[in-house]
Amino acid sequence: MSDIYVKNEKSYKAKKITFNILTYLFLIAIAIAILIPFYWMLLTSMKSDELMRRIPPLLWLNPKEWQLSNYYRLFELVASGPRRGEPLFPFFTYMRNTVVISIITTTGTMITTVLAAFAFARLNFKGRDIVFAILIGTMMIPGEIFILTNFLTINRMGWYDIMDQSYMDVIFAMTLPFMTSVFYIFYLRQTFKQIPNELYYAAKVDGTTDFQYLLKIMIPIALPTIITITILNSMGAWNAYIWPAMITTKDEFRLVSNGLRGAFTDTGTGRTDYGQQMASSTLVTLPLLILFFTFRKQIMRGVSRSGIKG
């Protein structure tokens, strides 16, 4: 019996080691696939024009070959042409627009998400489960379907005027259609439902209103999940491309993602300056990376606490 036990134990350990090795190899492969685009972006931003045209392209640069000219040229002024005296890439204008839209959209989304999640998780009203089921059903509809209806609504509201569109029109058009999210409501509702009912009943005995209970108890407990939603929504607004491109009529109203697409292409020759494009992409990506690594612990806690309670 002892020999059989030893053999089974060795077989189990061998299978476990093999499984761990395969798991780590798979995770390493996924990590490499994710990091390659970032590496290529950073590498391309540091190449000179001569190295950029080299075939086959270089996959590695010595530190002596690093060039920061692409970053410096981003803030140079156009010397001639209709844009003379303007920045080659209006980085700060695009960043200002992106930050403003991200803050407004995220603030509006968090208000609607917290209130709706609290209502569906804690309040008892007629038709609650039916309404929530209908909302969950809308998640199966692709978001691209709503683009046309949103555009028609914005146009009827007078916020899309080719001849005379103001900055406030752009802010309303970019933010109001995206100040709610069914997925985030569902996500936060799962966290709210994990809070014991005894806390709610005890608070009601003490004379606490539902709104006070939400502010003083539920939000502090669910803060990691709320921070996760805030960061994810901010990143979505930061990377938005299709809707800002559709709804803006002037270049100075566009977001940074739209500016990256066409700012470095010569309209005469069609040639794209990939060095500067990648340099600007690096500067745009840097705030998101800083935000993620700063709040990575809160994101992990928020994801782990979301739960699956119905």
Q: How is this structure best described in words?
A:
With about 300 residues, this protein is mostly helical. It has 2 domains: about 1-65, no CATH class; about 90-305, MetI-like fold (Orthogonal Bundle). It is about 65% helix and about 0% strand. It contains 15 helices and no strands. It has helices at about 1-45, 50, 70-75, 90-120, 130-140, 145-155, 165-175, 180-190, 195-205, 210-220, 225-240, 240-245, 255-260, 275-295, 295-305. Helix 4 (about 90-120) crosses helix 8, helix 4 (about 90-120) runs antiparallel to helix 11 (about 225-240) and helix 11 crosses helix 15 (about 295-305). The mean pLDDT is about 80.
Helix content: 55-70%
The largest pleated sheet is described as: none
What is the typical, i.e. mean, pLDDT? 81
Number of helices: 15
- The total tally of domains equals 2
How far apart are the termini? 47 Å
Coarse shape? flat
The stretches of 5 or more residues where confidence is low (pLDDT under 50) are none
**CATH homologous superfamily heading of the largest domain:** MetI-like
- Secondary structure tally: strands: 0
Structural class: mainly alpha
| CATH fold-level label of the largest domain | MetI-like fold
Helix and strand string, N-terminal first? HHHHHHHHHHHHHHH
Q: From the alpha-carbon coordinates, what is the Rg to the nearest angstrom?
A: 26 Å
Query: How much β-strand is present in the residues?
Result: under 5%
| CATH A-level architecture of the largest domain | Orthogonal Bundle
Q: Briefly, what CATH class of the largest domain?
A: Mainly Alpha
